[in-house]
C-alpha cells in the first residue's frame, strides 16, 4: 500500500515538473540560508568557546567603549580580589595583545632578514593550562619567566614556526630578536592554536602586571572558567556586588574605571566579547534569516495549498468513494516529504557552498593584518545537521499537513455537485489575504534592512574624507620601545621623547628624498580611520558640565603632513621648531572647529584643553594653525568625528604611527622604495600593513561589508521569494475568484471596474503590510544602529525605494492574473473549474 | 407585420459557434435562426451537450458566436467590444443561473444591488428602492441583510431572480433555474417566473425538465447544435423547421 502511495506521489510530482522544481528550490534556498546563517552565527557568536577543555571560556572585561569602539581592559588587582572573595572562578588568567617585530638583519634565519611583524599575545603563565593545550615542541611558560630581570622568552605559533623557521625543531633554545631585544624561543604551539584570537607568538606578562598589590593603571583582558554550577548570569550578579564595593573604595585617580551606570567587571561569553560592536548586527542578520525562512515556509505552503485547491475535486471524489481521510492525508503528505527531503539535501549543498565562499571572504578581509580570530573558520557541524533535519520535519508538517487537513475539511458534497463553489470559501479567501499581507510584511523588513546596510556601506566607502587617496600608499610604522625608551617622570623624559620623535621626522625626510614620492604624511591615524573623540574646553568658555563641551578627534602629526594628503593650511602656520621646546604645547585644529567656535576668524592664538569626567587637563594647548576639514573614522561608525585637532609628535614620541606617501610610477616600486627609505633611517623600525589608501579606509568596514554582502544575498533571496510568493499568492487568490469575476461580468460589470476592485483590494493589503513591515524594519534598524551611523540617503532608498518596489510587485501580481482571467469569455469564467 | 417587427426583441440569423481544441473542431451550434418577441416565455430544451447553454450564453452576450448575426432590440450585437457587451448585459439582460451564483461575501441586498451599482444613471436612493422592489417581488425583503450561506437553495435562487429583475431588463435568461433545487423549491421558482411573465417579462429558459419547459409559451428543441423543433407549448401547434 505504501509503495502505491509512493508511486502515486512521485507520479503527481513528475506530472507538474515546474511546480515540483520551484517548490524544491524554495525549500532549498530557505533552509540553505538558515543552515548557513546558523553555522555562521554559531561559529562567530553563539557557540561557547571550549578549547581543549570541557569547560566554557568566558571573558571578563570592562564595558565596551562606544565612543572609541574599544574593548575596555580591567585592573587585575580588582579581578584577583573578586576571584578570592567570590570563589566563582575555577581558573582565571590575563592577556593583552600587541605587535612585536621578530628578527632583523642579524637573524640567522633568512626569512627573518627583514624584521617581521607578529600579532603577539602577552599572557599570564597559566593560559596554556586553562586552554589545556601544551606546546607541540619545547615547553610552556613557567613562573620563573615572569619575574623581573628574567630572560625574555617567546613561544611561536605553528604557522610562524613553519613560515619563518622552516619547521626546524632545533629552534628551541635559539635566540630571537623581539622588537630589537634578544629573546629566546622556548616552545612551538600545535597547529591551529592562536588563543586569545589571532596570536602568532606568545610572550609572558610581568608578575607585577598579573598580581599587583594595589589598584594600578594596568589594563589587561581576562579569561576564566566558571566553577561547576555557576552560570554566566550568576557570575555577573556576584560581580555586580563586587563592582559596588570597588566603586566605594576606589581612589579618585582610578575612578574612571567605573562607568556611570556602575559597570566595571563584566563577565560574558568569550566570543561575544570579541565582536561587541557587531553583536547587534549579527542578531539582526539572524532575525532577517529567520524571516526569510518564514517567507520560504509561506511560499511552499501556498504552493501546496494552490495544488490542493487544484486537486480539490479529485480529493472529493476519493472521499466520496470511501477512501479513509487519514490515508488521503498521508498520501498528500508524501508529496511534502519528497519536496522537503530533496529540498533539504539541496539546502545542505547551498549552505556548504556559502560557507566556503564566506571562509574565503574572511581570509581576504583579514589578509592585511592577519587578525582573523581562530574560531572564524566556518563549518557545518552536527548541530547544524540536526537543525536541518528538524527543520525538514517541521516543514513537512507545516507545508504538508496544514494544506492536507484543510483539503479534508472541505464540503465534498458541494464540491462534487458544483465543481468550483466549494473550492474557495470565505475562510480560504481570508487565509489568502493573511498570506499576501505576511509576504508583504516579511519582504519589506528583509529588503529594507538589507538595503540600508548595503547602501550605508556603499556610501561610507565612497564618502569624501577630505583627503586625496589616489596613488597613496599607507603603512604602519613602529619603533622599538626598548631601542628608543622614554624614561618617564625622569629628567631624561624630554630628550628621550625628542630622540624617538626624530626617527619619524627623519623617515619623513628620507621618504620625501626618494624619487618615487612627492610627499609623505605621518600621523597617529590617517583621515578616514582612527575614530574616537574626547571633550575639549575653550579658554574662558568652559561649560558647566564636562560633557556639554564640544568634542573632537585628536591625532599626532609629524610636521607638515598635509601636502601628501591634499589637505591645506587655511590659517596660521605649520608645525615647526617652535613647537618642540620643552613645556610648549601647541596644536592645530580643522576648519569645522574654527568655523563653529571661532567664527570671527580668530582661532589662532586661542587656547583649549582636554576635559573629561575626572576633570580638566592641566595643560593648555595653543592653536597655531587651521587646516582643511577631514573626517576621521568611517562615516558609518558612530564614533567617527568631523572635528579634528592635531598635535605635534615631537613632545609626545609615539611608538606607532601611520605613514601615507604620494607616489609616482607603479605601486610595487613604491612599496620597495618606502621600505628602503625607512630602513635607511633604522632597519629595526617596523613597516607593516602596507596597503593602498582606499584599502585602508575600507579596512574598518570590511567585516561590515562582508556582512552586508550576506545581507545582499539575503535581500536577493528575499526579493525572489517575495516576488514569486506575492505573485503566486495573488494569482492563486484571483484564480480562485474566477467564477466570481464571471458572475460580476455576467451582470454587466465592465472589465475596468473588476480590475479596479482587485487593485483596491491589493492596495489595502499593501497599506497594512507596508505599515507593519516599515515599523518592524525601523525597530530592527534602530536596534542595529547602536554602533552604526545610517546615512539619510540609505533611509531614503530603503524606506521609499523598497516600499515602491513592493507596491510595483504587488500591482503587477494583481494586474497580470486579473487581466488573464478577464481575457476569458464570461461564460468560460462562470464555468471555470 | 409592422407591429410584430417592433415587438421583436431578439433575432438570430444563421448563428454558429465552433470550438477549437487542438486539431479538433466542434460545432456547438449550427445555422440557428430564432426570433423572440417581447413578452414571450420561451423554453430551450434538449439533451446534455446539445448546445442549449452555449446558445443561452450567446443570447446573454457572455460568449460570442463564430458566425451569423445576433440582433437585440434591432441592434446588431454580434461583434461588440467587451465594454459594450458589458453595458448591454447590465441594462438589458437579467441572468438566473442553475448554481445561483450569488457572491458569498455580499449580503442579499448587496447581491441584488450589485448590477445596479455598475450603472451611472441611477442615484443611490433609486438603487435602494429598486432593490427593495425586487426583493419584495420575490418575497425576500425580510432576508435583505443575510448572507447567501444563511439561506436555503430555494431562497438563494429567489435572490438570484431578484438580482436579475432589479434593473428591469428587456429579457430574463435562465439556465436550468431549478436544476439545483428540490421539487418544492423548483415549483416555487417556476411560479415566480410565471408571475414575472404574467407581468410582461420576456423569459428565455434553458431546461431539460419537461414540466418546467411546459410552463413556457414556446418550446425550442435543440439537438446536436441545431434547432430541431420550435413549437408552441401545449395548445399551440408545432412549427416545423
UniProtKB/TrEMBL annotation, chain A:
<feature type="domain" description="MacB-like periplasmic core">
    <location>
        <begin position="474"/>
        <end position="650"/>
    </location>
</feature>
<keyword id="KW-0472">Membrane</keyword>
<feature type="transmembrane region" description="Helical">
    <location>
        <begin position="333"/>
        <end position="355"/>
    </location>
</feature>
<feature type="transmembrane region" description="Helical">
    <location>
        <begin position="278"/>
        <end position="305"/>
    </location>
</feature>
<feature type="domain" description="ABC3 transporter permease C-terminal">
    <location>
        <begin position="287"/>
        <end position="399"/>
    </location>
</feature>
<keyword id="KW-1003">Cell membrane</keyword>
<protein>
    <recommendedName>
        <fullName>FtsX-like permease family protein</fullName>
    </recommendedName>
</protein>
<dbReference type="InterPro" id="IPR025857">
    <property type="entry name" value="MacB_PCD"/>
</dbReference>
<feature type="transmembrane region" description="Helical">
    <location>
        <begin position="375"/>
        <end position="402"/>
    </location>
</feature>
<dbReference type="GO" id="GO:0022857">
    <property type="term" value="F:transmembrane transporter activity"/>
</dbReference>
<feature type="domain" description="MacB-like periplasmic core">
    <location>
        <begin position="20"/>
        <end position="239"/>
    </location>
</feature>
<feature type="domain" description="ABC3 transporter permease C-terminal">
    <location>
        <begin position="715"/>
        <end position="826"/>
    </location>
</feature>
<dbReference type="InterPro" id="IPR003838">
    <property type="entry name" value="ABC3_permease_C"/>
</dbReference>
<feature type="transmembrane region" description="Helical">
    <location>
        <begin position="762"/>
        <end position="783"/>
    </location>
</feature>
<dbReference type="Pfam" id="PF02687">
    <property type="entry name" value="FtsX"/>
</dbReference>
<dbReference type="Pfam" id="PF12704">
    <property type="entry name" value="MacB_PCD"/>
</dbReference>
<feature type="transmembrane region" description="Helical">
    <location>
        <begin position="710"/>
        <end position="735"/>
    </location>
</feature>
<keyword id="KW-1133">Transmembrane helix</keyword>
<keyword id="KW-0812">Transmembrane</keyword>
<feature type="transmembrane region" description="Helical">
    <location>
        <begin position="21"/>
        <end position="41"/>
    </location>
</feature>
<feature type="transmembrane region" description="Helical">
    <location>
        <begin position="795"/>
        <end position="816"/>
    </location>
</feature>
<dbReference type="GO" id="GO:0005886">
    <property type="term" value="C:plasma membrane"/>
</dbReference>
TrEMBL record, chain B:
<keyword id="KW-0547">Nucleotide-binding</keyword>
<dbReference type="GO" id="GO:0005886">
    <property type="term" value="C:plasma membrane"/>
</dbReference>
<dbReference type="GO" id="GO:1902495">
    <property type="term" value="C:transmembrane transporter complex"/>
</dbReference>
<dbReference type="GO" id="GO:0005524">
    <property type="term" value="F:ATP binding"/>
</dbReference>
<keyword id="KW-0067">ATP-binding</keyword>
<protein>
    <submittedName>
        <fullName>ABC transporter ATP-binding protein</fullName>
    </submittedName>
</protein>
<dbReference type="InterPro" id="IPR017911">
    <property type="entry name" value="MacB-like_ATP-bd"/>
</dbReference>
<comment type="similarity">
    <text>Belongs to the ABC transporter superfamily. Macrolide exporter (TC 3.A.1.122) family.</text>
</comment>
<dbReference type="InterPro" id="IPR003593">
    <property type="entry name" value="AAA+_ATPase"/>
</dbReference>
<dbReference type="InterPro" id="IPR027417">
    <property type="entry name" value="P-loop_NTPase"/>
</dbReference>
<dbReference type="InterPro" id="IPR017871">
    <property type="entry name" value="ABC_transporter-like_CS"/>
</dbReference>
<keyword id="KW-0813">Transport</keyword>
<dbReference type="GO" id="GO:0016887">
    <property type="term" value="F:ATP hydrolysis activity"/>
</dbReference>
<dbReference type="InterPro" id="IPR003439">
    <property type="entry name" value="ABC_transporter-like_ATP-bd"/>
</dbReference>
<dbReference type="GO" id="GO:0022857">
    <property type="term" value="F:transmembrane transporter activity"/>
</dbReference>
<dbReference type="Pfam" id="PF00005">
    <property type="entry name" value="ABC_tran"/>
</dbReference>
<dbReference type="InterPro" id="IPR015854">
    <property type="entry name" value="ABC_transpr_LolD-like"/>
</dbReference>
<feature type="domain" description="ABC transporter">
    <location>
        <begin position="10"/>
        <end position="241"/>
    </location>
</feature>
